[in-house]
């Protein structure tokens, strides 16, 4: 009952989080392949992406066939990697459930958990993502360097991995040591 009801009613009560279209624009402009991986039926997922005018950002939407009760998200992550021709180390999975983190880990993909979706913070912390954006907007210390700030939310990562993560968000090698207070508005949004 939930799935058909969401497609007819729930979608009208949903919204895109502020800043998401800007982030998608930034990633696409930088040449990144963006794909949706979900256990929502592929038809429903495509409906959501189209409804919110986000379809032009994504190369593909991966989800189970409507007749399947659920799919293995790790298999869908593999399909996304294959379609992009990407190696695991070149990809990032952003998700709001522990299942997203586990699916990324199954293929050695870095996992970013977002704490403003459906998943509980405890669930996400227990899944041990590489990076945990607990709140959509975090108060940044203007005196801290970007790499220092990132190390507080990715404590298991070393400096090399932190630089790689920041590079994925379009920060150069020199940028990682800039104080946050000197970043432009667009740079602060990416961080």
Structure description:
Helix 1 runs parallel beside helix 3 (42-51) and helix 4 crosses helix 5 (98-105). The chain has 191 residues and is mainly alpha-helical. The protein is globular, with a radius of gyration of 17 Å. A three-stranded parallel β-sheet has the order 3-4-5, covered by helices on one side. The protein has helices at residues 2-13, 20-29, 42-51, 73-84, 98-105, 121-126, 146-153, 159-168, 185-190; strands at 35-37, 60-62, 92-95, 110-114, 131-133.
Fill in the keyword field for this structure:
two-stranded parallel sheet; single chain; mainly alpha
Summarize this, please?
The chain is mainly α.
| Rg from alpha-carbon coordinates | 17 Å
Mean pLDDT: 81
Helical fraction equals 40-55%
Distance between the termini: 39 Å
Secondary-structure content class: mainly alpha
Order of helices and strands, N to C?
A: HHEHEHEHEHEHHH
* Gross geometry: globular
Strand order of the largest sheet: 3-4-5
Low-confidence stretches: none
Tally of DSSP β-strands: 5
Write the layout of secondary structure elements.
Layout: H1 2-13, H2 20-29, E1 35-37, H3 42-51, E2 60-62, H4 73-84, E3 92-95, H5 98-105, E4 110-114, H6 121-126, E5 131-133, H7 146-153, H8 159-168, H9 185-190
Parallel strand pairs: 1-2, 3-4, 4-5
């Amino acid at each position: 009952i939930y799935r058909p009801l969401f497609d007819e009613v729930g979608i009208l009560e949903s919204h895109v989080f502020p800043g998401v279209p800007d982030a998608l624009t930034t990633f696409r402009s930088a040449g990144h392949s963006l794909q949706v991986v979900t256990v929502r039926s592929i038809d429903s997922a495509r409906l959501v992406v189209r409804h919110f005018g986000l379809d032009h950002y994504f190369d593909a939407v991966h989800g189970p066939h409507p007749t399947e009760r659920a799919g293995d998200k790790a298999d869908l992550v593999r399909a996304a990697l294959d379609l992009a021709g990407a190696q695991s180390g070149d990809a990032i999975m952003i998700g709001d459930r522990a299942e997203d983190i586990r699916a990324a880990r199954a293929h050695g993909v870095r996992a970013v958990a977002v704490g403003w979706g459906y998943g509980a913070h405890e669930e996400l912390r227990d899944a041990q993502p590489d990076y945990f954006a607990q709140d959509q907007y975090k108060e940044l210390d203007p005196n801290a360097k970007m790499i220092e700030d990132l190390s507080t939310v990715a404590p298991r990562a070393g400096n090399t991995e932190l630089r790689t993560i920041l590079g994925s968000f379009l920060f150069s090698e020199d940028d990682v040591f800039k104080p946050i207070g000197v970043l432009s508005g667009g740079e602060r949004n990416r961080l």
